[in-house]
Design brief:
single chain, 504 residues, alpha+beta, OB fold (Dihydrolipoamide Acetyltransferase, E2P), BirA Bifunctional Protein, domain 2, nine-stranded mixed β-sheet, five-stranded mixed beta barrel, 19 strands, 26% strand, elongated, disordered N terminus, disordered C terminus, RNA-binding
RNA sequence: GCGCUCCUAGCUCAAUUGGCAGAGCAACGGACUCUUAAUCCGCAGGUUCUGGGUUCAAGUCCCAGGGGGCGCACCA
C-alpha cells in the first residue's frame, strides 16, 4: 500500500455515511468556538449563561460516557467542548457515535461544567460532513512529511500549529500591502505568461499559447512590466505574485515562489533600503508586537535603522583581508585562493570579490545588515554607482545568513540598457541559457523616458520563514512542489469519471 | 541531475546474527451521568513501497524501479 493511502478509508465495518438528504445546505448565525470560550470566561464551574449559541466545526475528540458525552469541537477560531446529555440532546445515540474529523453544527447553551471546562450544552445538532478517512494519531498527529505536504488539508487539521503558521503568513502579506498602500503605492497585476521571460537571470518554464501559435514563458520576474508602468506614470507601483524559475528544489528554494516587487520614481537605492526596513519591521510588529524577535533560538533585532556597509568593507571585516576592486586581478585571485575560494582564470576582480563574499561572508552575517555597492559585473541591470564606475547601486539586506531582498537604483538610460541587453544576448549565444534576451518593448518604453527610480524585490516566502522562525521553505508553502505520483491519475480518476457519468 | 539515507497495520513506532511481523492510539462490539491523551472488557486489522535475485528461510542481504528527506550544484 502506497503512501497515498496513508490516510485511507477506515474499516469496512465503519458506520454508514450520512445520506446527503440529511445534510443541510447552510448552518447560520454561528459564533466562533474559541471566541465563545473567551467571552464567557467569567462563568463559574457549574454555571450556565442562559445564552443559546450556534457553533460549527470539526469534532476533534469524542468521549462518550454512558448517558452523557463530551466532545471537542474545533473551528478556525479555536476549540470548545461539547457537553451532551442523553435526556435532552437530540439524536443522542448518533452523537455518541461521531467520528474524529466529522463536521457538525450545534445549538446549545454556553456553560461551564462542574469540572471547569467551557462548553456548549448541546440541545440539538446537525451533521455537516462525514470524515470517512482517518486523521492520524490522536496524540501525535501526522508526522510523515510526505503526507503533510501532499495532503496539506490533513496536516492543517491533524497538527497543532500548522494553521497558525499559515495564518501568520497571511498577516505578513497583509502587512506588506498595508505598508505600501499607506505610502501611496498602487498595486497592479502584470502578465504571468510572457513572450520573453525577462527581468532576472534564470531559466524559465515554457508553455504553449494555442491561440497565438507560440511558445510562451512563465515569468521569472515582473520587473520589466512594472518599470513600463513607471514610464506610464505610475510613480509608485507594486505587485505581489508568483515568479517561476526552472531550478532545483531545496529547503530554501521552491521553483514557484512569491515575490514582492515595488518601484518608486525619484528614489534611489538608499530610499529603497529604508522602505525594506519599514516593510520588515512592520510585519514583525504585526506578528509579534515587537521588532525584536527570535530565530533559531537567537535574538534578531529588526528595529530600523539597520547597519549599512559596502560589500568590499564587509568582506574585509569578516576575512581580515582587503579586496580592493582596483587591485591587480592575479593578486586578488591569490588572496581568494588563500581563503580557500578558487576562481577561474577568466574571472574579473568584481567576480572574485563577489565569490569570496558569497561563500565566506554572507552565510555568517546574522544581520540585519544592508550590503551595498556590488561590482558591476555581477549586476547587469543596475545603475552604475554615482561615485565609482566599477560598482552599481545595489543593496541586499542579509538576515540569518540569507539574502531576503534586493534594492536598486534602477537603470533608466535606454542606450545603456540596450548595451547591457546585447552583452547578455552574446552570453546567451555562447551557451548561458540563463542570460537575458533583448526586450525591444522594454527598450522602447525606456525611450519614452523613465525618471530616476528605486526598485525592490522581497522574497515573501523567505521573509515569512524569518518572521515565523522556520528553516524549511516547504513549511511556509501550503502546497510545496512535489514529484507527482504517476499511477493514481489515469486509472482511478477515469474509472470514477465513467461511473458517475451516464452520458460518458 | 549527482551522492547519502529512509519507506513495516488508518496514524505513531518496534521486530537481536537472516529464523512464527508486534505494541500504543484510531476503528469495530460492549459497560459507564462531569470526561480532559478518560477508564474497563472484548474484537479485528498486513502485497513489510513495487519487481526481480541469493538462501532451507528475507521486513532484514543483493540488483532495478517508485516516492520522501538531507547534502551538492543552480538560484531568491
Amino acid at each position: 500500500m502506497s503512501e497515498q493511502d496513508a490516510t485511507g478509508e477506515q474499516d469496512d465495518e465503519a458506520k454508514q455515511p450520512t445520506p446527503s438528504s440529511e445534510i443541510p445546505y447552510r448552518f447560520s448565525d454561528t459564533v466562533g468556538a474559541g471566541v465563545v470560550a473567551l467571552d464567557y470566561e467569567h462563568l463559574e464551574p457549574g454555571d450556565g449563561s442562559g445564552v443559546i449559541a450556534n457553533v460549527a466545526g470539526r469534532v476533534m475528540r469524542s468521549r462518550p460516557q454512558g448517558k452523557v458525552a463530551f466532545a471537542e469541537l474545533r473551528d478556525w477560531t479555536g476549540s470548545i467542548q461539547l457537553f451532551a446529555l442523553g435526556q435532552t440532546t437530540s439524536d443522542f445515540d448518533r452523537f455518541v457515535r461521531l467520528s474524529l474529523g466529522d463536521w457538525i453544527g450545534v445549538t446549545g447553551e454556553i456553560v461551564r461544567t462542574k469540572r471547569g471546562e467551557m462548553s456548549i450544552l448541546v440541545h440539538s445538532w446537525v451533521p455537516l460532513a462525514d470524515a470517512r478517512r482517518g486523521f492520524g494519531d490522536k496524540w501525535r498527529g501526522v508526522s510523515d512529511v510526505e503526507i503533510r505536504h501532499r495532503q496539506r488539508e490533513v496536516d492543517l487539521w491533524a497538527n497543532e500549529g500548522v494553521r497558525e503558521l499559515f495564518l501568520k503568513r497571511s498577516r505578513v502579506v497583509s502587512s506588506l500591502r498595508r505598508t505600501l498602500d499607506e505610502r501611496h503605492f498602487v498595486e497592479v497585476e502584470t502578465p504571468v505568461l510572457q513572450p520573453l521571460a525577462g527581468g532576472a537571470n534564470a531559466r524559465p518554464f515554457v508553455t504553449h499559447y494555442n491561440a497565438l501559435h507560440a511558445d510562451f514563458y512563465l515569468r521569472i520576474a515582473p520587473e520589466l512590466y512594472l518599470k513600463r508602468l513607471v514610464v506610464g506614470g505610475f510613480e509608485r507601483v507594486y505587485e505581489i505574485g508568483k515568479d517561476f524559475r526552472n531550478e532545483g528544489l531545496s529547503p530554501r528554494h521552491n521553483p514557484e515562489f512569491t515575490m514582492l516587487e515595488a518601484y518608486q520614481a525619484y528614489a534611489d537605492y538608499s530610499d529603497m533600503a529604508d522602505l525594506i526596513e519599514t516593510l520588515v519591521a512592520n510585519a514583525a510588529q504585526e506578528l509579534h508586537g515587537t521588532t525584536v524577535i527570535t530565530h533559531s533560538e537567537r535574538e534578531l533585532d529588526l528595529t530600523p535603522p539597520w547597519r549599512r556597509v559596502t560589500m568590499v568593507e564587509i568582506v574585509e571585516e569578516v576575512t581580515g583581508i582587503s579586496f580592493n576592486l582596483r587591485d591587480d586581478v592575479d593578486e586578488l585571485r591569490k588572496r581568494a585562493s588563500e581563503l580557500g575560494v578558487e576562481v577561474g582564470d577568466a574571472e574579473s576582480a568584481g567576480k572574485i570579490v563577489y565569490e569570496v563574499y558569497e561563500r565566506l561572508v554572507e552565510p555568517n552575517i546574522w544581520g540585519p545588515l544592508h550590503v551595498m555597492d556590488y561590482p558591476i559585473e555581477v549586476s547587469p541591470l543596475t545603475r552604475v554607482h554615482r561615485d565609482d564606475p566599477t560598482l552599481v547601486e545595489r543593496v541586499t539586506p542579509v538576515i540569518t545568513g540569507r539574502e531576503i531582498a534586493e534594492a536598486y537604483s534602477e537603470l533608466v538610460d535606454p542606450d545603456e540598457q540596450r548595451r547591457r541587453f546585447v552583452a547578455q544576448a552574446a552570453q546567451r549565444a555562447a551557451g548561458d541559457d540563463e542570460a537575458m534576451i533583448v526586450d525591444e518593448d522594454f527598450l522602447r518604453a525606456l525611450e519614452h523616458g523613465m525618471p530616476p527610480s528605486g526598485g525592490i524585490g522581497i522574497g515573501v516566502d523567505r521573509l515569512t520563514m524569518i518572521l515565523t522562525d522556520t528553516n524549511n521553505i516547504r513549511e511556509v508553502l501550503l502546497f510545496p512542489a512535489l514529484r507527482p505520483l504517476s499511477q493514481q491519475t489515469d486509472e482511478v480518476g477515469e474509472a470514477e469519471f465513467l461511473d458517475e457519468n451516464p452520458l460518458g
